[in-house]
Amino acid sequence: MSIPPEALQKLLQEIEQKAAFSQQQMGLVKAQMAAKAREQRMLQLTTSEVDALPPDTKVYEGVGKMFVFSPRDDVKQRLAAEGEELKGDTVNLEKKLHYLETTYKNSRDNLEQLFKR
């Protein structure tokens, strides 16, 4: 079975574009994962600092350009909720990265098969 040269060239371009797009998206996802890891580390540090405070210590949170008093338990709950949200985001980014890596690998495999013909 022979493929016309025009169709073969178009197929090669599509596969190359898909591979390049996947590679570009992998870089973006890895950068997002690194940012989420930094945020998670900041939350861990903040939580450990809040836990180390005596129970009667007043805690203030930044809201825009001012600081507002917040009960310590509310701050801890907010930090825990943000931590869970970050974990979910990280899991989703890992899934996306796996998908993109698979797409990139499949594109490269398809290119190799076409060149072997």
Automatic annotation (TrEMBL):
Tagged with keyword Chaperone? yes
Q: Name one GO molecular function term.
A: unfolded protein binding
UniProt key word Chaperone: yes
Q: Name one GO cellular component term.
A: prefoldin complex
Any stretches that span the bilayer, and where are they? none
Query: What family does this chain come from, according to its entry?
Result: Belongs to the prefoldin subunit beta family.
- Quote the protein name from its UniProt record: Prefoldin subunit 1
Organism lineage reads as: Eukaryota, Fungi, Dikarya, Ascomycota, Pezizomycotina
